[in-house]
Amino acid sequence: MKDSSIWIEKHRPKKFEDIIGQENIVKRIKAFVDSKNIPHLLLAGPPGVGKSTLALVIAKELFGEYWMGNFVELNASSERGINVIREDVKNFARTKSIGNVPFKIILLDEADSLTRDAQQALRRTMERYSNTCRFILSANYSSKILDPIQSRCTIFRFKPLEKESINKIVDRICKEEKLKVDDNAREALIYVSSGDARRLENFMQSCSMISNKITEDLVYEIVSAARPKEVKEILELAVDGKFANAKEKLLDVMLKHGLSGMDIVKQIQAEIWNLKIPDGRKIELIDKCGEIEFRMVEGSDEFLQLESLIVNFMKNDKT
After folding, report:
1. From the CB of residue 200, how many other CB atoms can be counted at a distance below 10 Å?
2. 235: which of 107, 123, 216, 315 is 20 to 30 A away, CA to CA?
3. Greatest extent of the chain over all pairs of C-alpha atoms, in Å
């Protein structure tokens, strides 16, 4: 199975019981669906945690065989202007539904990408056509949604998937695709996916193209990420005052895995909490990582900034 979109669609949950890691949200929304009535919904949270999937399940459970005629999905990041709201959304919202449910559903995926003017138009459309249409807004950052729209919605906040939930998804995919994943590989998949089920499935698919037995080495080779222990070794060398060794190890890791400065800073930030240094120093170093990342975004030389970061790790309580 070479197409990642086909792979993800194959493993997408088809009913409420299949959605893993968001049980409390699913339970509340299922109560709305069982009553054959839902309010406007705002699903907020990081990518890959089940927001769009839940919207599809809602439509299928509500409308049954007529769900495709009563449901439309628009990606607001690519169709973000006011004309989309005035034309496509309004034309769909004003028509009656098919079947015994009195309203249709419009899913606006990545609604936080809508322009301010488009959101103002959406605000009025939601109010005017509430009898014939319900809106489900999916957003990574709910703060970018205008307050008048938020006040018209019931808000559900999703969280990144926890280790137990990721393991359940891995188990399900291994059973369906006849894959073998050892314990170290599981830990690697949990680490690199960062609670994102979509990212997890993409990594597993890429690994399965090479071998049906997924190992830790294969995961890191596919993902092109440094192992946590490699990053921790760099930081421990710096904390011990071995600047030259830390710099050499950092360059070696970046070249070995093909990492950019932004990539390695994010991994460094995650490993700071595992260092044996005072908590106050950890907070200072986290703050420094943010400053270094900002400088890189603004166009500063990556390796020079990383050397500066290493120097800050050497400023420990022993010096």
Report:
1. 22
2. 216
3. 74
Is the CATH number 3.60.150.10 carried by domain 163-223? no
Q: Please name the residues in contact with 60: beta carbons below 8 A apart, sequence gap of 6 or more.
A: 14, 15, 67
Q: Dihedral sign, CA of 136, 138, 142, 144?
A: negative
* Residue 21 identity (one-letter amino acid): G
pTM over 0.85: no
Phi, psi dihedrals of residue 105, rounded to the nearest 5°: -130, 135
CA distance linking residue 30 with residue 37, whole number of Å: 10
Q: How many residues does the chain have?
A: 319
Give percent of the chain above pLDDT 70.
Answer: 91
Between strands 71-75 and 154-157, the pairing is unpaired
CATH number, domain 22-157, options 3.40.190.10, 3.20.20.70, 3.30.930.10, 3.40.50.300: 3.40.50.300
